[in-house]
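so my prof wants the structure for this chain in the C-alpha cells format not the other one, which i didnt know existed until like an hour ago. anyway here's the sequence
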Amino acid sequence: MKKYVKQTMDAVRKYIDLEMKNAPVEKTKEVLAEFETKISYFQHERLIHLMVTLAFAAFLLFEIFSLFILPSSFLYAGIMLVLIFFGLTVGYIMHYYFLENSVQQMYHMRDEIRAFLDPEKVL
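here's what i got, hopefully its the right format
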C-alpha cells in the first residue's frame, strides 16, 4: 500500500509541477476526478487501519491487565502475547501515521489543482 500511495502522490505532483500549466483544462479536470477517487480509497484504507490499530491496542491492554490475574503458570505465555500485540500495535500505528500524513498531503495537492482550475473558489 505504501508503494501505491507514493506512486500516486509522485504522479500527481509531477503533473502539477510539470504539465498542469500547459495542459488542457479538460485533462486537468480528469486528473482531478481520478485523484479525488483515489483519495476516497485512501480515506477508506485509513479508516480500516484506524479500527485495526485500535483493536490491537485494546488486545494489548487486555493482555497486560490479564498478566495481573493469570496464574503464574501462564505468565510466560501472557508475556509472549503482550510482546506480540505490542509489536503489531506499533507496526499498525506506524502504518496509520503514514496513511494519515499522506492523505493530508493529498488534500493540499487537490487544493492546488482546484485553485488552478478556479482561483476564485479558493478558501
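also thought this was worth mentioning. The chain has three helices and no strands.
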